[in-house]
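Note to self: keep these together.
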Amino acid sequence: MIGIINYNMGNLASVLNAFDKVGAKAEVVEDANKFKEYDKLVLPGVGAFGDAMEHLVQRGMDEAIKEYAKSGRYMMGICLGMQLLLNSSEEFGKHEGLGLIEGEVVAFDTSKFETPLKVPHMGWNRMFTKQHPLFEGLDEEHYLYFVHSFHAQVGDERNEIGKSFYGYAFSSAIAEENVLGIQPHPEKSHKNGLKIIENFTKL
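Structure:
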């Protein structure tokens, strides 16, 4: 059974529906004490980093997620959920993250372009991936759906398993052993996204 964490930061219905489409058993979990009962965890999220961390801390979910990561079972952050896996974010001030993967969340640097980048980065874009079980059966480059104004900047390139380009390269998929993160929304990315969801269920 896969647990999809509900901390009031994002619409969970589409994530739950994506797991249903690939034939996986998943349910929404709101009690941090029950995280350990699941085979895998998913941390989705839409919104601001600071608000999200505040919600996790208030519910005791931050420590529960860290403990789950130590168990060796797979967990995956999606969009904002991926960013929360890192050490910190500069979104609307400096905020501490879960610190499960070395790195920080930074704003898109629009200053270096004559025509400024439009932020948020929204729409279909390519992801260039390294060999990893999460991308089994996909081409090394494939299109996925993005919506975000800040991006991950990993501390160690070995933690970057996917990258995309929007003005310049940024980390769009990250991993540290059993802890995975993906910036685009696989649940909104049709066939390619469902393949990633399916691959996650098989890890």
